[in-house]
Design goal:
With 321 residues, the protein is an alpha/beta fold. 46% of the residues lie in helices and 9% in strands. It has twelve helices and five strands. It has a five-stranded mixed β-sheet. Helix 1 packs across helix 4 and helix 6 packs parallel to helix 8. The longest helix has 23 residues.
């Protein structure tokens, strides 16, 4: 009962007519020079903007400043300023949404710990002192991480953006329960924080997502999880999204996934979706025109990078990350 695959929406097809400057290819705003004087002024402006937000709209932020002041120091605030290219109003709004969402996902205890899998203080460290609720949060987050839906490649495009690989076929063993959904959402937070923290280049330039839904099935689609992840990525986590490159989309992408994306994705991000179809070589050639050479792409789509989720997580545990 094979269904003939419809063509991907023409609006999203990757083209080779765009200006291929690796730093401006996706229409992102350039970052200003971060002189000490500039940063000092922007930190002051951010504090002023945060002070103007009503208390009921920054409950999470207030809690964070009281319960984990070390986590919300200048380095933390700087990520939000960079994400919003130093628009302090947008940075203040994002930081408040971020802490509300972080507490919603991780709870009133784990949210105020570093988002690390290693180290005794890490939120995702399997701590015997955790309550049952927190132990379950940790367990389902680890399940989400080992599911392997979203993984860092530890490589970058020619513009310096970090490359994240997303494979929806990982949801083959996913049961669509609330616990699993929240576990995957928390794992997405961990992956992105792992890439961002301490990496000035990625904080300034952002990431590109290589999505490979070729082997996914309609039954794997979780609309609630898609909405949760999209809200976190585009409105909470301080990450600049360069582009979503969708490679080898399945037949149902144009009919089911794209209409859903149009509903949950901000307009600015819709313009940064690129769809690459055809043979493996054709897709690799198309990606190469966006500064994504075979040497930095996962072997899953014909690149040279072999992803080792277990090895990466064990290394993070050793390093206390």
């Amino acid at each position: 009962e094979a269904v003939p695959p419809p063509p991907p929406p023409p609006l999203l097809l990757a083209t080779t007519t765009e200006a291929m400057d690796p730093l401006t290819i996706y229409g992102q705003r350039p970052q200003p020079e971060e002189t000490p004087e500039f940063l000092s002024a922007k930190f002051a402006e951010l504090e002023d903007e945060l002070s103007k937000i009503p208390a009921e709209k920054k409950v999470g932020w207030i809690s964070a400043t009281e319960k984990c002041p070390a986590l919300v120091a200048e380095s933390h605030r700087l990520m939000f300023l960079r994400c919003e290219v130093f628009n302090v109003k947008e940075a203040a709004a994002r930081i408040c949404k971020y802490w509300d969402k972080r507490i919603e996902l991780f709870g009133e205890v784990l949210a105020f710990k570093p988002l690390h899998v290693g180290g005794a203080e890490g939120a995702l460290h399997e701590n015997s002192e955790n309550t049952k609720e927190d132990a379950d949060r940790v367990r389902f987050t680890w399940k989400g991480l080992y599911l392997g839906f979203m993984r860092p490649t530890m490589t970058h495009d020619s513009g310096g953006r970090a490359i994240v690989f997303a494979d929806p076929s990982a949801f083959k063993g996913y049961n669509h329960t609330s616990d699993e959904r929240y576990g995957v959402a928390r794992s997405t937070w961990y992956v992105l924080h792992n890439i961002l923290e301490g990496n000035d280049t990625v904080q300034k330039l952002g990431v590109v997502v290589i999505a490979y839904p070729h082997h996914a099935k309609i039954s794997y689609v979780d609309r609630k999880l898609m909405k949760m992840n999209m809200e976190s990525i585009t409105g909470c986590i301080p990450v600049r999204m360069g582009s979503f490159h969708i490679c080898h989309p399945p037949w149902f992408f144009g009919n089911i996934i794209f209409p859903l994306i149009k509903v949950i994705m901000p307009d600015r991000m819709k313009k940064r979706i690129r769809v690459h179809s055809g043979s493996q070589e054709r897709v690799l050639d198309s990606l190469g025109k966006f500064g994504l050479e075979r040497s930095v792409l996962p072997s899953d789509i014909g690149g040279d990078v072999i992803l080792d989720t277990d090895g990466w997580l064990q290394e993070c545990k050793k390093k206390g990350l």
